[in-house]
Amino acid sequence: MTLDLADFIIPDDVEPTSTIGSSVLAVDFGSVHTRAVLLDIVEGTYRLVARGETRTTDGFPVNDPAVGLSRAVKQLEQITGRALIRDSGQIITPETSDRSGVDLFLVTASVGRPLRAVLIGLMPDVSVMSALRATTGNYVDVGAILSLDDGRTEEERLNAILLSFPDVILISGGTDRGAEAALTAMIETARLAVSLIDRSRRPIIIYAGNAALSSAVQQMFEGLASVQIAANLRPSLEDERLDSARAQLSMAFDRYKETRSANFVPIAEMSGQGILPTAQSNRTIVDYLGRTRRGGVLAVDVGSAVSSLSLAFGAQAAHIVRTDAGLGHNAVSLLETVGINSVRRWLPLALTDSDLRNFVATKSLRPATIPATLRDLYIEYGMLRATIETMLSEARSDPDIAADQSSRLIIGSGAALINTGSPGLIAMLLADSLTPTGITTLWADPYGLLPALGALAPINPQAVVQLLETENLQPLGTLVSLGGRPRRDRAVMKVRIKLDSGETIRQTIAGGHLWVYPLPLGAVAQVSVRVRGRLTVGGKRRLRFRATGGTAGLIFDARGRPLPLPSDLRALADQLALWMSEATGDPPLTLDERLLTLAEKHRDDSRRADKASPDRKRRRGRKKGQPEDGTPDDIFADDLAELETSEDEDDLGALRRVLS
Amino acid sequence: MYYPDQRYASPLTVVRRECLLPEEAVGTVRVTEGKRVDVRDVVANGVIMNRHIILDAMSFFGLRRPQDLTPLLHVEPGELVEDRALLAGKNPQRGRRLFAPMRGLVAKIEQGRIIIHEMPQVIDLEAGVRGRVVEVRSGRGVVIEAVGAQIQGVWGNNRRTIATLRVEPEEGLESIVEDALNLKYKGVIVVTMRPLTAAALQIMEGRGLVGLIGPSMDASLRERALNVNGVIFLTEGFGSARMSRAIFNLLSQFDGQQVTIDAFSPTRWETRYPEIIVNITPRGDERPAQPNPMLSLRPNLNVRVTRDPYAGQTGRVVDLPAAPVLLENGLRVLCAQVELVAGGMVNVPLANLEVLGR
Question: How many Å lie between the alpha carbon of B51 and the closest alpha carbon of chain A?
């Protein structure tokens, strides 16, 4: 990977400097876990030196996040033998001559209530739409949206603002040097509302509208509320500038954390950089990787209360933050957001809608718990997959992103996804829910390194480049995914893996299956793949590439796209168990027969409801049972034989010959 | 070192009760740190903002300038006005006059407009326990330290009450309906081991019970429970789980005693638990053990399992293996070896264990 310092977009107010010391302690406060990483220069380059993880202590019984901070940092002290925190709970900064302390202490957080926002704009499909897009990368719950043609009276607008109890009011509207009167009237209503709110609860005003009104807006709110001016979201009807408003929203989040979330005040003070939203830090790194890596990058994080997905291809990026979707605290609203049927398609279980609602409601009461039965595992992974699918579909609907592009690099994080104890299972869950095609590198971020790097990027981008170049995120391996619809259990993919040791491994993979070769972390192999008929891997029928190993290895996914989920309940149970077994190397798990029998009726019901779905209509175009590898078996056999006979030749020569 | 979840269920402990106004409320704390409070003492007052009405007095009176309204005004900002109270008019007895459309506060008078705040919801926050204020949270409430029993649950319908606790009749809640003359349960909080149903909520309202403590209820009843006239308190979760024997036995000890229930409804962002507190006067100088919020998981600790397949069962930690354990569902996670009270030695993921206090 070639990374370039110049690809970081550094905010104007931050000056990257070489005088910044070397050691960095970064802590990320999630809703359930607090993760700490120690980064330092080892043999001339930045490395992840140690990591610690503990439960977040923002709530009962401790009610003080600093306790969790101390516990996580003490783990780092035990690992490194280095003093990092004083008995008073103060992080030791800067680093001293005896190597105690760190030069930089960074804090990111996704824990706690998001900012409650009211959006004010003029036109719903112009400034209001842009304001909504500006909020998507931050922890923001939009309480009310006011626009010129929302049909509300002034009094109704006033009450919409007041009864949303906003932390922030984002005002947009008007192109630069455009109309002023209409926007001024809307702002006047906001001013009146703010004046009626108790002084201790007044929201921050972010103005991102017609630049000509900026100073007037400051005057209108003078003595009433704090005003932050951002660049106009829509300087012209054709242009959209979200970055400045997003940065102001992040600053508002920091101020909100510092002023309203009293427990975080001492932590923010120790940091010196304030508290950055985790999603914003992740976004910084995804944007950077999108610019520097060929083929695009996707990062997904499914947390207990908040989930996010970022997608970047070159300079184009889409960022989704769902403050209403999480597998723990927000399990109930997750189910509402993604819809019961999106989860149910992954469930081979005897569950009524009521069972499912009871399950998620109980999970939200004990958000940190993990599934210990196969039934619970299927439900939680069904929710996980459905959440990622929903966010991906949302990101792909962004006009900046070509809907059919598949990322070459995928990074997964979030306890539900990462803490499985099996890298193969993580890889399978990512493949199931993101259904990439072609060749994809898979990374996991079990240590909360991504938010740390995002927070570090504006201050010490060189360190970030070095940390990303080395394997500090956990490489899961390389995923090779077959596109199209292979015939089940028929040979569809022929693989040859030539190791650096000279050993060659050959494998024929049948349609509908996964196969994992455990190429270890750090190892590299020459891989040749040939597929049958009209099936392809990233648009190619034959390809050869150098693949890197990982904790899972090389994963060959011959299941096809879209994933063929059986409609028969027992078949689905068998299928999911088989895929899990193929991905992990563990024996297939058997579901209790009683759970299957009862479920059939309910699945039949939901299938009836699904009959009119667009997917189903598309499927009708193809003859039943006619997969895209519909070429006669003997032709494919010839192709395979050709590859077999060429094995003594030079690899490249053989591949050229086959390709010709 | 692993720090497990804690959910207290103790017959005698030092209770630290957080007594807080809702986040949306603007309030004032009425007591100071160190002050002794009784169950019914008000420790804080608060108001939650309500609807505002804009009255365009300038156009009502046909005035040309906002300042022309000043001599017509009969109220000033901050004043409480009753429904139909006179707000403005040249002559209070006759002629064109502007009246308040509802009871409320005059929030603002500016630019020829009078803005009325419909009477906001006023909250008088009671201490709920007999004890000493150990912390004041400005504008929000207090933390009170008391001695008594404390039983934390998992869900409540966001109401509070102080009343006598009764265990349900042996024949179940339904039998309260059958006996129209039985007043034993009127005005009390009833504990039932069985999951709450729509019928149970109906019985509560119909028979004048002030609260129900049950193990679980169907999630579809949640909205209804939030709106019933009484307190609903769940100990286990949603669905059809029965109350764990240990919790039922503990609650049964307080049959006939006055209890305070704070049926706090956990939000996505706030991790307080609903709780039942029973004030107990310790004998002599006896002071119960204080719960330890910093408690780490260790062998011999009593725990409760919070997820299937052993959900609700209690036991004792026997060992904490250092390596992850393969579960029946294929996950490999850190577990504790737990000896269940009901019998059997099982591996339980650390995340699925809860400490009951101490």
Answer: 6
